[in-house]
Design goal:
By secondary structure, the protein is α/β, with parallel strands linked by helices. Helix content is about 55%, strand content about 10%. Strands 2-1-3-4-5 form a five-stranded parallel beta sheet, sandwiched between helices. Helix 3 links the parallel strand 3 and strand 4. The N and C termini lie far apart (about 70 Å). The C terminus is likely disordered. Keywords: Coiled coil, DNA-binding, Phosphoprotein, Transcription, Transcription regulation. It comes from Paenibacillus violae. InterPro entries: CheY-like_superfamily, NreC/VraR/RcsB-like_REC, Sig_transdc_resp-reg_receiver, Tscrpt_reg_LuxR_C, WalR-like.
């Protein structure tokens, strides 16, 4: 049986040498190449034919999470199974690695488990357990909730209550003339409000701005079915 061919991308040269020596002692594993920088890895994946079955990819290279993008590149260019290496369980980075196509990850301090993980990856079996996977999903949901809360706070800080009311009426299908009539203000004043809103939110149109606010849950009332073809901004 041919040994499983392994590429290691790792910027800690002492740890890299130790890991290579450890894996090469396994009768069914063979480290065919080692790289220590993201640039070397990008060049290899771009210019070379696939020559490794499994890639061990350090998440952090030169203090950047460059391994995540390289994991996707290794998968697309070589079809290799990628196992991420990390010094700590950085859940956001690990989740993004799985999104990029990594099949598993391993804490470096538990390197002695790598031979079994490599064999499982080569056989298309991810050894990550269900409990860890659920923890990562929950962390991702937590991060999305925090992101949403930040966006809501940012919007509330930018948009005045009056501007929010204008956007809500636009979202309900009211024209600027109808909004002016509802608030007993001039059409020019409504247009000024809309101009300020678009500038603050960087939106191309008032409808786009209104949609953003609706998606953030900032409107108190549901949308009506009112529509009109006149006075569109």
């Amino acid at each position: 049986m041919e040994p499983i061919r392994i590429l290691i991308v790792e910027d800690d040269l002492d740890w890299l040498r130790g890991l290579k020596a450890y894996l090469d002692r396994q009768p069914d594993l063979q480290v065919i190449r080692t790289l220590s920088t993201a640039e070397e890895a990008r060049e290899l994946f771009t210019a070379s034919e696939p020559d490794a079955d499994v890639v061990l990819m350090d998440i952090m290279l030169q203090d950047e999470p460059a391994g995540i993008g390289l994991a996707e590149q290794a998968l697309l260019a070589w079809g290799a199974k990628v196992i991420m290496l990390t010094s700590m369980e950085e859940k956001d980075f690990i989740f993004r690695s799985f999104q990029a196509g990594a099949i598993d990850y391993q804490i470096k301090s538990r390197f002695e488990e790598l031979p079994a993980i490599i064999r499982g990856a080569h056989a298309r079996k991810a050894s990550i357990n269900a409990a860890v996977a659920e923890q990562m999903r929950e962390e991702f949901r937590r991060l999305k909730r925090l992101e949403h809360q930040f966006k809501v706070k940012e919007a509330r800080d930018l948009i005045t209550p009056t501007e929010l009311q204008v956007l809500e009426m636009i979202d309900q299908g009211h024209t600027q003339t109808e909004i002016a009539s509802r608030f007993f203000i001039s059409l020019r004043t409504v247009k000024i409000h809309v101009g300020h809103i678009l500038k603050k939110l960087g939106s191309p149109s008032s409808k786009d701005a209104a949609q953003k606010m609706r998606e953030l849950g900032l409107f108190e009332r549901g949308n009506s079915t009112h529509t009109s073809d006149s006075d569109k901004d």
